[in-house]
Write a structure and sequence with these properties.
With 345 residues, the protein is an alpha/beta fold. Helices cover 30% and strands 29% of the residues.
Length: 345
């Protein structure tokens, strides 16, 4: 099951308990596909095995749990993250597959070179706050890691990350993982990082006012800080920080860029889903999904901080990119609404 999910480029495996059996589904490119049905006794033993390997409590089935461990599939190291939920029909299990091999470049993130060029320009700032927003699974962590790799190659700087949990291990970074049992929270971890001589700090998520204030303080004292905030677009990311309690003055002093992003499944306008050998779009279709970015920086960012409508020019909204990629023919005109289907061959 794990090998098949990896070969199909699935991001998650769902084991959904039902009255008489357990449904197994794969999430592939943001769509759920039915993979198999499993007898309940076998599913129960499989979930217990995973919980044991991931360091979770096998005897506890009444509360949610989470854990992780690493495996190797086709000589690729994969980190598996597990999450269980109690349901009326036993436990539900979701497994997230996180490949640990990193070979993504900034230019690989999007088919729009103007967006990747803007992301690269954000790394020219020696200090400041760069925020990323978007729903779960929109590629925020991938974008941040790619930017960190680019900064490391470009400047050979000291990079420290604080995550919950660590998504991709990297020996070139100093990485810390949240451990609430050991009183290592975002707040305590952030304070410790500031004493560790970092150049760039990556924080998994700004969740509350205290973490936001520490991020601002780090940016004011000469560090470049990257983090995520839950919001639907770039302008609302600023409003979210103000709702948390940050002042507009602090944001004007520290915020250098806000990036909202989504992932789009590509469809070749000439060949369909699979490009022919001589197709001119083959290079773009090498990755089935591409990111679109709404990047708020410079004068448009200043307008947003002053409660003005962001000025036109280089600022393009997510909606603009959706219209552009649709006009170019890269969105499948017959794309079905998200839902369950059989796993594609």
């Amino acid at each position: 099951m794990l090998r098949t999910a990896f070969e199909l480029d699935a991001s998650d495996i769902h084991l959904i308990p039902r009255k008489s059996d357990t449904l197994i589904e794969f999430r592939i490119h943001d769509h759920l596909y039915e993979y198999d049905l499993m007898a309940k006794p076998i599913a129960d033993r499989l979930i217990s095995y995973y919980k044991f390997r991931a360091g979770m409590d096998i005897g506890e089935r009444r509360r949610p749990q989470s854990g992780s461990y690493d495996i190797v599939i086709h000589e690729h190291k994969i980190n598996l993250r597990f999450s269980t939920l109690p349901t009326p029909y036993d436990e539900s299990l979701v497994i997230r597959l996180l490949p640990q091999i990193w070979n993504t470049r900034l230019s690989d993130l999007s088919i729009f070179s103007e967006s990747t060029a803007q992301l690269s320009q954000l790394l020219n700032f020696e200090n400041g706050l760069i925020l990323f927003s978007g729903p779960t699974g929109s590629g925020k962590t991938t974008t941040m890691y790619t930017m960190l790799h680019s900064a490391k190659r470009r400047y050979n700087c000291r990079i420290v990350t604080l995550e919950d949990p660590i998504e991709k291990l990297n020996e070139n970074f100093i990485q810390m993982e949240i451990n609430e049992k050991a009183d290592l929270t975002y707040q305590t971890g952030f304070k410790a990082i500031l004493r560790h001589d970092p150049d760039i700090i990556m924080v998994g998520e700004i969740r509350d006012l205290e973490t936001a204030k520490i991020a601002v303080r780090a940016a004011l004292t000469g560090h470049l800080v990257l983090s995520t905030v839950h919001a639907t677009n770039a302008v609302l990311t600023i409003h979210r920080l103000i709702e948390l309690g940050l002042s507009k003055f602090d944001l004007k002093e520290t915020l250098v860029g806000v990036v909202a992003q989504r992932l789009v499944t590509l469809h070749c306008p000439r060949c369909g889903n699979v490009c022919e050998e001589n197709c001119p779009n083959r290079l773009k279709m090498k990755r089935r999904r591409t990111a679109i970015f709404e990047i708020l920086t410079g004068l448009p960012l200043l307008d947003a901080l002053q409660d003005k409508k962001p000025s036109l020019g280089r600022y393009k909204r997510l909606e603009d990119y959706y219209r552009q990629i649709s006009a170019l023919g890269y969105l499948d005109p017959q794309r079905l609404a998200p839902g369950a289907d059989h796993v594609p061959s």
